Isopropylmalate dehydrogenase-like domain-containing protein (Salix purpurea), 136 residues
Amino acid sequence: MARRSMPVLKHLLTSSSTPTLRRSVTYMPRPGDGAPRPVTLIPGDGIGPLVTNAVEQVMEAMHAPVYFEKYDIHGDMMRVPSEVIESIKKNKVCLKGGLATPMGGGVSSLNVQLRKELDLYASLVNCFNLQGLPTR
C-alpha cells in the first residue's frame, strides 16, 4: 500500500501549485450576554464516561462558557427519565456517551428512545476533497 501511494505523494509535493483547501466554516457566535450556557450531559456506559470526561476537561481548559447538567443514565434502564428529556429540550444541547444496547427480546434501546422522543433522524458529516488527490 505504501508503494502505491508514493507516486501520488511525490506528485503533490512536486507540483508547482500548492493545493488550496476549501472548507466551509461554521461560525457560532458566543451568546450575547456572555453568560454560561447549560449543556445536558449523559456519560453513558463503557468508554462513554471516559470520552465525556475528556470533553469536560477540554471545555474547562478552553474556559468555554458552558456548564454541564449531568444525568446518570445506563443502557440497562427501561426508559429515559422524563427529567432528562426535559433538560435536553430546555438546553437544546446534549453531550451523550455511548449507551449499551440490550440484545434480543424486541427491547428498544435508550438510543432509539432518545431519537424518537427528540425527533432526531439526521446524521450530517462534512467532508472535502483535496485538489490533485485522486478520489472515488
Remarks:
- The beta strands are 37-42, 66-70, 94-96.
- The chain has a mean pLDDT of 81.
- The first helix runs from residue 2 to 14.
- DSSP finds four helices and three strands in the chain.
